[in-house]
Write a structure and sequence with these properties.
Helices cover 76% and strands 1% of the residues. Helix 4 packs antiparallel against helix 11, helix 9 crosses helix 11 and helix 13 runs antiparallel to helix 14. It folds into two domains: 37 residues; 233 residues, MetI-like fold (Orthogonal Bundle). The protein contains 14 helices and two strands; from the N terminus they run ααββαααααααααααα.
Length: 305
Amino acid sequence: MAAQAAINKSASGRRRDYLPYMLALPIILYETIFILIPIVQQLVSSFTSDMFGISAVKWVGLANYDRMLSDKYFWNSMRVTLSFMGGTVIVAVGAGLIAALLMNQNFRGRSVARAIMTLPWAFPDLPTVLIFMWIFNPSFGVMNLFVRWILPIEQNPKWMMDINLALPLVIMIAAWKAFPFYGLVTLSVLQSIPSELYEAAKVDGATRLQSFRYVTLPEIIPTLMLMGVLACIFAFRQFALIFLFTGGGPARTTETLVVAVYKAAFNSFDFSYGATIGMAGFVAVFAITLLFAYLQRRQEAEAAS
């Protein structure tokens, strides 16, 4: 009987060992079908010449990459993407941190304020663009009134058509829409910090700034790093806001890599070159992710020592 029970227990254990794999199987299939296979197809397409409806598909090797590296518009798109990414990360994550610190305080109506803070994140892209196009309309936009009150100007700025203002406006809109997400995530981390740490710092005579520097900041740095890499990825893949608001103009000052991919593939019907630009963006995002993993491992090592 004991031997039979041991056999049954062993067989049951083997059956249970398959459970984690069965639970992970749908996710693996989804990632394979909708992510890995398209990436492989895009990589293969970048080594071919595929002018839809114009010429047959043929293998060209590294010709698309040579063309991309010598294309001044590609480097302009890369520069714009990095500028957009840096501005969005700084503004969105910084605003999210400030909002989280404010929402973590005790005041009347805090729940209502938290709900209002999430509204930009809940807005779809199209209504967001329409609202800001109305706000920054050079003829009747409300922003013209504020600017003319503050600055000694007589003519309304042409916001979306100004090469010096278009990119900052796009960064501001993208950050306005994204900061509630980073704020809510940071707020959840702030609420998980033990109150005993702040009480001990207060007993030691620490000021509010010192409490933030030596108690709050070390606890939220890993989260801020994660928010930073997520903001970088979201900025690289941001398309709808930019395309609907400026279309990549004026004079390509807001043409990011994803907009360049769209124009190459669906305006010029050069799918192979669009895939090549897309692979450049994929490599850039992958490098950012590896950098984050390295910094996180380094921080964990420093904390352990």
